[in-house]
Amino acid sequence: MATPRALVLRAPGTNCNEETAAAWELAGASVETRRLGEILERPEALDAYQILTFPGGFSYGDDLGAGRIFATRLGTVLSDALRRFHDRGGLLLGICNGFQILVKAGLLPGLASAASLTHNASGRFESRWVRLLPTPGLTPFLTDSDPIELPVAHGEGNYVAADASSGRVVLRYADASDRPTETYPANPNGSKDAIAGLCDATGRIFGLMPHPERHVDPLHHPRWTRNGPKAEGDGLRIFKNAVAAIR
Asked: Which residues of 89-105 are buried (b: 16+ CB within 10 A; e: fewer)?
């Protein structure tokens, strides 16, 4: 079977590209990291990849709002190339700032619904571990319902939409009893319906606020000595699922 080719797209201020590239490599993909400016000059370069990732960080300093400048550049130059990428079955993953980019570019939940990711309800940057409930069967990135534990690190993760039912919710913040929650701190940003991640109607575009690339090894978890023997970190499942779907 051919090895899927993954592209990690970075811009000034992106700071999670190396961890994201390493996660794709561990999952079995062939990965490259390129600057957004390179792809803006040659949009047809996207045709060489099956997986595209917008990683976390503070692209362009988030000067006009989290992910907004990156999203604007996508919409003005890469809209046709992204449509071709999606139509031929490519998978697109947005993590934290990448999720913000997907939403503000209209790729999630879709152009028909006005949505944004705004300031956390706590009024401050939140960096903590959270428990998450996947909804399998809607996106190839999530194939089982086992809870996932991942870290978050964001100041604007509160998902709001004009239509509360817009988008396909595939990842929710959970409390200690594995129930979806809007209560802080299990829900770190105040998102309604405990929304932590969405996919588009096809399932091939997936965005989430938590960082799966930061939990690909069991040793990454702060309670690794008490979690028992595990072959891999919870976040690696997301990357492996995508690679398996392409193959």
From this structure: ebbbbbbbbbbbbbbbb
Residues labelled catalytic: 96, 211, 213
Which tens digit of pLDDT belongs to each residue from 43-101? 999 999 999 999 999 999 888 778 889 999 888 788 899 999 999 999 999 999 999 99
Q: Determine the average pLDDT of the residues in 157-186.
A: 88
Residue-range domain boundaries for the chain:
5-246
Bridge partners for 5 per DSSP:
30
Measured CA to CA in angstroms, residue 115 lies from 118, 198, 207 at distances of: 10, 12, 13
End-to-end Cα distance, the chain: 7
The topology (CATH level 3) of 5-246 is Rossmann fold (3.40.50)
Name the pTM for this structure.
0.94
DSSP, res 170: E
- 75, burial (CB in 10 Å: exposed 0-12, middle 13-18, buried 19+): middle
Q: How many CA atoms lie within 13 A of 242 on its CB side?
A: 31
Give rounded-to-5 percent helix, strand, coil for the chain. Answer: 30, 30, 40
